[in-house]
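Listing 4. Sequential folding, example run.
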Amino acid sequence: MKRTLKYALSAVLTAAIVMPALATDNFPDVPDNHWAFEALQRLKKDGLLVGYPDGLFRGNRPASRYELAVAIHACYTNLKSVTDGLDSQIKALSDKLNGVATTADVQNLRDAMTALQNEVNGMKSYGDDIAQLKKLAATFEKELQSLGVDVEALKKDLGDLADRVKKLEAKKPTVNISGDVNLLMIGGNSRSGNFGIDQDGKLNGVNPVTKGVAGLTTDLSTLEEGAFTFSSTNTEGPKWKGTLVVGNILDTFGGQNNLSSGKPYVNGGTSVYLQDFSVKFDSSIVGLGFNAELGRVGYKVSPYILQRLDTTSYFSNERWDDGLYRFDGGILGFNFGTTKLNVFGGNNDNITATSGMPINTFTTGPVNGAFGGIGTLQIDRTLGVNLTTPLTSNGSLNLAYLWLDGLTPLAIGANTANRLAVYGGDLNFTFGKFNVSGGYSKSDLDNNTSNVNNQDDAAWNAKIGYSTHKWGLTGGYREVDANYLAPGDWGRLGVQRDPTNIKGWQVDGHYNLTHKLKLTASGEFDKGLSDAYPTSGFNTGSKINTYTVGLAYQVNPNLSLSVGYEDTEFISLDPSVVTTSLNTDASYKWTTFGIGYGLSDTAKLTIQYQVSDVSNEYQVTAGGGGRFTGGLLTTQLSIKF
């Protein structure tokens, strides 16, 4: 449509150009190898140029002013019909939005709105075209009048058309609809008569009936989930958004933070839930910038202070992996120049799906207790403040203080605790190709207003990294006390997440062997931090060494291949946790093969097979004698709309 109008105007302004001839459905005297063939073919098809009574275009003959007047009038008529049609299309689609009921309806509407928006976007330079038409109408006023055209009305209509085009460019649907659909298959198999165990602590290769070892076709779960995000499109005033999720993935994984070591995957029931639903507005208070987001909202601070655990290693999804804890409440933001202060809080309990499953269990402490630990505190209510400010042009400071109320009291020796305070901060600086970061945080346990524990409850870390376009290397050190509790996500050792009572070095790097082949590697070398906390599983004689290596190959823009290996060795675990007859050494090894294929810009298929080789007599299981040698096949189809 846009090209047609352009060609029409170009033909009107350059009608005296010489053009020789021959065609079938075009003008017979214009050959198909002529540079203007396509333009004239379109113009004739759209009725903008009709030629002479004998059907010829006669490109060698100069056009008369009357002939140009006819072409100008045809362009005007065509342009007016275009804008009238767009007006009616947008109104019809907007009306239909109120009656949307099915996924197919949503997708059809989105496709139609996208096509329509593309047409409107293509009209952005129509203003210049209309201005040219107005000039031509004035120049050929007498000739147009002789054709019976009301020139004054034409000029007025062209002015109205210019205004309508501007409005059409700015017009949007009142509601934007987006989302994703995921189909996931998980199949486990045993090997050498043993169950396997994956990085999330789930047993693989379990017969759901006999609980004995099984193959991929027996230990199989098929999962599906659709998420629909509705949001306002207004540029001024309050803005709202909400995400409705339907499927059985939430129930199958048992809640986003609920890892159950020693249990297999079991197909959960279908559930429906609102992941988020909020209204956001901007304003000012006594000259300060102010914004608020109220409803079901999400928030995170940093890995060691507040960040939701990613406990779904075999399901990749932005909504599940964003690290945000959801709660019913609000976030208030205050801007002091470049400094931002957020105050946030709300209820974490009773945020459940229709099945009763929590959508994000809010817990603190080591998760997946292969070795034990101080325990976990499930949070009921949250209140926090978070200050972020730049430090020169190269760095930033992130400070936070959290007040967390527990749902069920946590036993600490002879005492119980039902409240937790977590506070600390992080620094981050970048100097050219160097990056330096670090942080310190602390947690205090209380029973109402009385302190229960405030010793050996801190964590700190420091890192320095260097990167180029071809390679990068990062090294760091951290210590996490045995009693440090925070709702964060600071790492995994074997199957245990958020380990405590450790100290040690970390290193990771990458190297681009070619523009298609990338090598990654990492290592962590920890020791037990204290002998006073045997329930952590570590003492000063314990060592934990972790190595990972990966190779990724981008075959073409759509196809990628990968292979990875992880080996975590535990040496001299604290024997006082269990009977001394158990082996105090343990190891976790996983080898993973993956294929990724982009079906389109919005659809991707991922296939992954992982072999496990685990030896740990401390591992809490439903059997197996501490040996796990199975496999896990996962297939995920993701479609965004």
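-- end of first protein; second protein begins --
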Amino acid sequence: MELSNLQKARYGYQPKLPAILAGDISELSVETGGATEALSHQQEIKSMFKHCYGKPIARFVKGRNEKTAQVLKVGVILSGGQAPGGHNVIAGLFDGLKKGNPASKLYGFLGGPSGLIDCKYIEIDAKLVDQYRNTGGFDMIGSGRTKIEMLEQFNASLETAKKLNLNALVIIGGDDSNTNAAMLAEYFVETGSGIQVIGCPKTIDGDLKHEHIEASFGFDTAAKTYSELIGNIARDANSAKKYWHFIKLMGRAASHIALEAALQTRPNLCFISEEVEAKKLSLSQIVDKICESVVKRSKNNENFGIVLIPEGLVEFIPEVKALISELNDIMAGDKTGFEEEKSFNEQCLWLEKKLSPKSAALFKTLPEEIAKQLLIDRDPHGNVQVSRIDTEKLLIRLTEKRIAAMKSEGKFSGKFSALGHFFGYEGRAAFPSNFDANYGYGLGVSAFALIALGFTAYMSSIKNLSAPASEWIAGGVPITMLMNLERRKGVNKAVIKKALVDLDGAPFKSFAAMRDELAVKTCFRYPGAIQYFGPAEVCDQTTITLSLERS
């Protein structure tokens, strides 16, 4: 494999660690607090995790502990979508193990959790790790989305772990993956295997967040990558003085990515899904806001602009959410009847008879390509694949229609021409920023320390992230502390609660305070490319979101 010059240079970057993890590993000890509780439904979750519930928060401190020198065999899994910094978690875990005892071994399970179930693995050695230090992607061992939830899957996982004589397993993933980690930990304790399980917080969406988990790795890099692209487009629009760019951004359940990009680039409009739901904004009201900005900017001879749209926005618009729910029920109940209709128009007429009057009226207003996505692009369970709906195109078409009507009524004399974009995969495997390289590496070393000191059912944690890396605080958080009960497939399940945008939080309030001006004036900011070499205030800066939350 031929390497780029940047890749060669990044191999040599030495990630910065919290002071407590950067010193002599044999001088690492731990202090713990009192018992913890789940976010809600404490008794129900306690009954589901009889052995792992209520553990204390752990914080590493200076001390003397010979446990860090023991020979360990550890397995590691990358789970879910890619996020910049994942390779550094593995590198940190590997280096911690070898620093503790050179005879320790690390095994990587191939293709995600299925690698554990099917006993497909490789031994990770120094030569392999050195090829992936400070690089993006999950290609060292691959990832997957298999959920370990059936008894035979738990049994197979235990069999694999016993075959390799594992002391511990590290699962690098998001909320569902770390929920899996807690369930595996409980199972391993229940069976008396003695195998520990540690999770690491990963997701570019930024929705794995808590008082003691200030950020998930990958969010920093992805948000900065998208912001660079948005800034480039904004500068092009401001140069050419034409085109409204509607940009959809990855982040299905939460709008953290869109909000951070808005704070970095200052677009004319940015819709926050959580606010749309809270205010019960209709699709028509959203289009009203876009048209209002288009008209006002046109009066200033600025027939161009930037609109940011979270990936999951349509699910937060009340009447669209109701339509999707009805379509899912109809298709699940009578898919054969739908498929018997020969043409798309006939299928629409068939559906409209089964939809409620409000949903039928909304369905009729949708552009044909969007209606087809609602009907054809469905997951194996028959549900609409919301992430594949071209929300940016939907808003463009509806805005074009509204603007055309305004022109015919003499209410608009300017120009409106729009282009749609979707930024998602562009950011998931990018070279990690210095922040994510440092943070991921620190989480890996912290995971090793938690294993060496005997912890299980914990998530590796590093806090005080807005400070320089040397001042970061390392430790672990019991996974059950992040849980609540949710109804899934008709059953109450204990899962890590997704952290949505807090409308009372500093990041949203900061954006809300400037958006009336942004809607009219051209106030774009151009963050530029991620910088890896240079002054710390340029290269090691955190996201604006994190800075505002921790200030």
